[in-house]
Design brief:
By secondary structure, the protein is mainly α. 76% of the residues lie in helices and 0% in strands.
């Protein structure tokens, strides 16, 4: 079988990569900008946590709703909505006069981002199947991780020489290019007439997660016994529990619990939770500590993780292709264990800071493990699900990864011991390594190679008249 993309398949990969690039770029630039935001607007570690988590709350909760909307009304329409909304929210963030305005705008941006990643991956998985799908997802991974190069570098330069506000305007160019490329795509949206969407479930999920995260972030300041903490926590748990109950009984769930009967799907998502929670923790503490603890300027702090990105770009497509041939289990097991070793290498960071000996070795090891993991993980999970459910399957997987990051950042004060000093940095490295090791173990025990892939449902173009 030929493993060469057609012209339209290349266009699909390019559109999917650029659409996701926007969301990934924002994720990489924000960590570099956090110390500058805190200096200008105030609020310390709590403001920094909320700048990250406000985005992740709406992204993680609404990404499920967006997956259902994508399956019901078409990936291309949903992608356009997400791109336009993301651009408007980015401009609002750049103009933020206060921490509260900034946090609200970040929440709106997260809601728009929820429409980007699942629709972009679903565009690939619904149009490219078989061995080419692993290669396509690998190419998507390699291209989107270029945001990890552009984000810290451009973001650091803007923070050091202009303002953190310009960091959030970087998205304008890829948004414009993606909207133009969508006009060149020959594929048409596949829509399901009469599909009902569980809007109430989306509201319950969003407010449930939001209330729990509020309690986790504010708890170190107020204590568990404060009504401002335990009441939102209880309400959040009840709302999220009610959301799960509703998904089991509603005829149109945004989280089809039946998907979790598929072994590779549920196991892969459990592994995703630990792996991506660890990634979020590592990205946050490295970017912030290198500035506030080690005293590096934003540009150098952003460039510190450059080896990770280079290895991702060089190896992701190859790893995706190999996983398509050999199966994802080996890669999903070994990759996280390698990243665990990379995280432990950060324990060598001391008061007498030296990037070349204390941080760089960790970045190389971590980058190799990440490149080994990401494409096989994505291909293994989405390849186990029928193409007609690719939108919601992609949304569930992305929601799991975002919620994992959301909860870990919300618990940051407990993880680092209240302050991101050297001791807190070391504690975060140990927690990162432990979560990575659990992710690898779950993959080894649960993932199976060679599971039969469901036959794809014919698209509108393929169905007989």
């Amino acid at each position: 079988m030929s493993l060469i993309f057609t012209g339209q398949q290349r266009l699909v990969v390019a559109i999917a990569a650029l659409a996701s690039f926007v969301a990934f770029l924002d994720g990489t630039v924000v960590n570099v900008a956090l110390p500058a935001i805190s200096r200008e607007l105030g609020g310390g570690l709590v403001t920094q946590q909320w700048v990250v988590d406000a985005y992740l709350i709406t992204l993680g909760a609404l990404i499920l709703l967006a997956g259902s909307v994508s399956d019901a009304y078409g990936r291309i329409l949903v992608m356009r909505i997400g791109l336009i909304g993301f651009g408007i929210a980015s401009i609002a963030i750049a103009a933020a006069p206060s921490p509260l305005f900034l946090i609200i705008a970040r929440a709106v941006q997260g809601a728009a981002g929820a429409f980007l990643v699942p629709s972009s991956l679903a565009l690939i998985t619904s149009t490219i199947r078989g061995p080419l799908q692993g290669k396509a997802i690998g190419a998507w991974t390699a291209l989107t991780t270029s945001a990890m190069v552009a984000g810290p570098l451009i973001g650091g330069l803007f923070v050091d020489f202009l303002s953190w506000r310009y960091v959030f305007l970087i998205n304008v160019v890829p948004i414009g290019i993606t909207l133009w490329l969508l006009t060149r795509l020959e594929a048409r949206d596949v829509r399901r007439p009469g599909t009902r969407i569980d809007w109430l479930g989306g509201v319950m999920c969003t407010f449930g997660l939001g209330a729990m995260v509020y309690a986790l972030i504010e708890q170190p300041k107020l204590g568990w016994t404060a009504p401002e903490i335990w009441i939102p926590l209880v309400v959040g748990i009840l709302l999220f529990g009610g959301f799960l109950w509703r998904q089991q009984h509603t005829p149109s769930p945004i989280l089809p619990l039946g998907l979790f009967k598929i072994r590779n799907f549920w196991t892969g998502n459990v592994a995703t939770f630990f792996i991506y929670g660890a990634l979020a923790l590592n990205g946050f503490v490295v970017a912030v500590y290198l500035q506030q603890g080690a005293g590096l300027p934003a540009t150098l702090a952003g460039l510190a993780s450059l080896p990770v990105t280079i290895l991702m770009i060089l190896l992701s497509s190859r790893m995706g292709a190999l996983a398509g041939k050999w199966g994802p289990r080996l890669f999903m097991t070994v990759g996280p264990l390698i990243m665990a070793v990379g995280a432990l290498l950060l324990l060598s960071v001391g008061e007498d800071f030296n990037y070349w000996w204390q941080v760089l070795p960790s970045m190389f090891v971590f980058g190799f493990g990440l490149a080994t993991t990401v494409s096989p993980l994505t291909a293994g999970i989405l390849g186990a699900v029928d193409t007609s459910r690719s939108g919601i399957a992609s949304a569930v997987n992305n929601a799991v990864s975002r919620v994992a990051g959301l909860l870990v950042i919300a618990m940051l004060a407990a993880i680092v011991g209240g302050a991101l000093d050297l001791a807190g940095f070391h504690r975060a490295a140990i927690v990162t390594a432990g979560m990575m090791a659990i992710g690898g173990l779950v993959s080894y025990l649960g993932i199976r190679n060679g599971m039969p892939q469901p036959d794809p449902e014919p698209s509108v173009e393929q169905r007989p008249a």
